[in-house]
Design goal:
By secondary structure, the protein is mainly beta. Helices cover 13% and strands 39% of the residues. It contains 2 helices and 7 strands, in the order αββββαβββ.
Length: 93
């Protein structure tokens, strides 16, 4: 059975991923996050802890990552919340 898809977000969600490209905080369950070159992470949480850990993953947190970039949780941790101040993130389940 095929289903109609409209745009990147719908296609990605159908395959097990979600595209985020707004400034809202998003609760997620992700093993990997791929970021666009212009992405700036304003908040990143792992394991359901309400602690911003972006400094553990991004060398200059207030700047764009500068190239397409993927991150996975340290020691197998799962990302549980992300908020961007610019760019796009592809959340991989």
């Amino acid at each position: 059975m095929s289903r109609k898809t409209t745009g990147q977000a719908t296609t990605a969600a159908h395959k097990g991923a979600t595209i985020i490209n707004d400034l809202d905080p998003h609760n997620i369950n992700a093993s990997m996050i791929t970021l666009s070159a212009d992405a700036v992470i304003s908040n990143l949480e792992v394991g359901g802890q309400a602690v911003d850990v972006k400094a553990s993953y991004v060398s200059t947190p207030a700047s764009a990552v500068g190239d397409y970039w993927s991150i996975t949780g340290l020691a197998g941790a799962e990302f549980t919340k992300i908020q961007l101040s610019a760019g796009t993130a592809n959340i991989v389940i």
